[in-house]
Structure formats: C-alpha cells, structure tokens
Amino acid sequence: MLGTQALDALSRTKVAVFGLGGVGSWCAESLVRSGIGKLLLVDSDRVCITNVNRQLMATTKTAGQVKADVLAQRLKEINPLVELDVRQQIYSPETAGEFALDEYDYVVDAIDSLREKAALIRHALSIPTVTLFASMGAALKMDPFQIRATEFRKVEGDGLARALRAKFKKTGGMPARKFTCVWSPERRENLGPAGAGCGLGECVCPKDPGGGESSLAAHEWCSSKARINGTVAHTTAIFGFALAGLVVQDVERKS
After folding, report:
1. What is the mean pLDDT of residues 60-84?
2. Which residues pair with 66 in a beta bridge?
3. Which of 5, 56, 71, 198 is the most exposed place for a label (fewest CB within 10 A)?
4. pLDDT digit string (tens) for 230-239?
C-alpha cells in the first residue's frame, strides 16, 4: 500500500515515545508494526494491576515489572531488527539534557503529569528538525468517534489542554511552533471512589523482585494521586494508534 520508497523511509525514521501507559504503549507497538527503525522508550513506572484494563503490556503476570522493559521485549518479538533505547526514567526539566532529542525525527508526548508534559513540548519544539505529536486527556472518554487530531490552539473542552495553556502562560508563553494533538471533546463524570489513590487502598502491585533500593525500584503513581480518572482500553488505544498514524502519514508524505 505504501510502496518501497515509503517503507524505506519508515525504516530510517527515529521516534521518541515519552509515556508508555494506555496511550503510549499502543502507539509504540503500532510504530514498530509499521516498520519504524528506531524508538526511544521512556517511562519511569512499573506495571500495576490497575493498568491491566488499558495498557498493552499490563497483565497479571507482568504486574510489578518495569513497563519499558516489558514493552521492549514484546516489540523485539514483533521486529527483532528494531533498534530500541529503553529508559526507566522520568523526563523533567532537570533530566531533559539526558535525552538527545535532536537525534530523533519525531517526538510523541504521552505524558500525564502537567509539569513534565509542558517541559517536553517546549523542548521538542525548540529543535527545528523534530516534529512533535501530543496526546491530550484520554481519561473519562468512551465514544471513539469523537476522537480527533487538530492543532493545539484549536483544542476546545479538554481539561489537560486548558491546564497546559495556563502552564505555558506562566512559564514564558506559548511554544515557538505549532503542534498537532490527539484529543476528544467528550465529557463524562468520574464515578470512581473519592479519596486517595485508585480505590484499592495500599498499592497491591508486587514490588521490585530484586529488592532494589533505588527511588524507581518500586515506583508507582497510584498512591500519590488524589483520585484516578477512569479509562477504557478502546479509547486510550485509539489515541495511541492515532498518534502512530500521524507519524506514519507524515513520513509517507515526506518520502
């Protein structure tokens, strides 16, 4: 369908995916299945049992394992020739220098946390050779037919986009370049339990099997969140597939 020229271009394309949750994990797999030659996979977290409803690599058997490592193993089984740079790491303004984004053609932002998301978007858009595609909020969405892709300034009714705009205004204004987002205007009420965490009480995820003492050894986010916004697999996956589709279409167009 794409032809040899586009497939060759895909094999030479390098993509950095930040955030390997319900959106980023599906995006990464779609990119590998589409023939992308190199991926940077970045996520600090371990698989939690609460991830099983929506994250590609999350199963009852992988709970407690490093997300990036589990996903990388699966991607290598799909295409043993794909080049992977796997990081169990947090992207932040403080760690930004550790990621050589200028070596990549595309950056996919699937980060949830506002501070880190804003920093990554600014960083990526400061590099003229990088094309950025970003996910807005995929939680509390059910209708797949409302999901769309538009330029960030045209996103309406999305809480994450609204918070990002406010963050940008407080930290130097809008990014230098425009960028495309995947988002949905759908609004649903969170019917989950109020209070800290995911509603399961103390985290039920297995801890580091090796007994590591590093800050990321038993890293999980559930217990630090005031409330978990509900998600469904088909919505988060479509967000991820749409991001991958934007990359593949752009590569084909440029090839």
Report:
1. 97
2. 46
3. 5
4. 899 999 999 9
